[in-house]
């Protein structure tokens, strides 16, 4: 079985090289020219206007503030106004605005556009962006909420995004969130967490257990405020893709390790302390509430054993590696039932079939219900939603139908 460590590291090296080259070229441009190229991406199902207008050659003076106004066609709604630049973990980075008018300062070459979606996807839901639940470092940690209008006491689905534990945020899961909220049976929360090492700009590196602490902190905050969005804090499903597959499995299986005795500070003691703790509640109460509430998991194309992503970890001691590996903490169904639904594309170059199959086999050996499906012709990250056409096409082809299957699985847990 090819190790995900090797594949992740090779991808990271290549993409880091793109970042360095992109940053270098941008620095050179800013030092040698007062203009940058602004390219306009043709919109579908709506239009957008830019003031001041972009000249025919696309060259715009550095520091120019562009005002973009988006107008959807009848039957459509705005998804986002965005601009995309070179650089970042995956070669390009997009910045998105979820308002009908946005202002962008031209400080490098960029592509500008607007995305529109069918109004039926959003007309019956309330979307709440950027609920901050903690700030343990430079970056405020936040989540978005997708709640059916009039929701009351519905089960909650919590989504954890992917990105190699080192890129993206909760926005990338909004396509999946909109699919899972269809039918008005769930309130969906899409959460963010710190990036590993110092990629968030933190002076001290973040480690994998810190990211898991963030996930537990988000869940604790969501439980505390669930009623505000019409959700039941005692009925929760977790899902996530890629790195979020690992973190959502961790949320489902590692909650019994929540405690306040530290993580690896004493021999043999590895306890997670949620980044957010509700006032007036003990760590024991939070541990019990999270453990009882999580009823199902759908970790998509993720790794479950630290041996498969050790290239991202500073720690090498086996105790630490075991403690962050969901595969080592599968309970017997007689102790706690955690039904699992898992998918992986047959063309996924990061997550092997053996990784998911091994986890599935161990779940079943413990008496757990586990459904694992390989999606023919799908690659990695087909549940992602980004402005670029390729990502959105992959989501339409694979993400939409398999989100429906995931939702049907959750229905079997919460409604049958």
Summary?
The longest helix is centred in the first third of the chain and has 29 residues, at 4-32.
Explain this structure to me?
The structure is a single chain. By secondary structure, the protein is of the alpha/beta class. The protein folds into 2 domains: 10-118, no CATH class; 124-414, Alpha/Beta hydrolase fold, catalytic domain (Rossmann fold, 3-Layer(aba) Sandwich), CATH 3.40.50.1820. 29% of the residues lie in helices and 29% in strands. The chain contains 8 helices and 18 strands. A 6-stranded mixed β-sheet has the order 9-10-12-11-13-16, sandwiched between helices. The longest helix has 29 residues, at 4-32. Mean pLDDT is 93; it is low at 5-32.
Q: Any idea how many domains?
A: 2
Q: Based on DSSP secondary structure assignment, what is the total number of beta strands?
A: 18
Alpha carbon gap, first and last residue: 38 Å
CATH topology name of the largest domain: Rossmann fold
Fold blueprint:
Blueprint: H1 4-32, E1 35-40, E2 46-51, E3 59-61, E4 65-72, E5 76-86, E6 92-97, E7 101-105, E8 110-118, E9 125-134, E10 141-148, E11 154-160, H2 174-180, E12 187-191, H3 208-225, E13 231-241, H4 243-253, E14 263-266, E15 269-270, H5 283-293, E16 294-300, H6 318-323, E17 340-345, H7 353-365, E18 370-375, H8 389-414
Parallel strand pairs: 1-8, 11-12, 11-13, 13-16, 17-18
Antiparallel strand pairs: 1-3, 2-4, 4-7, 5-6, 5-8, 9-10, 10-12, 14-15
Helix pairs in contact: 2-8, 3-4
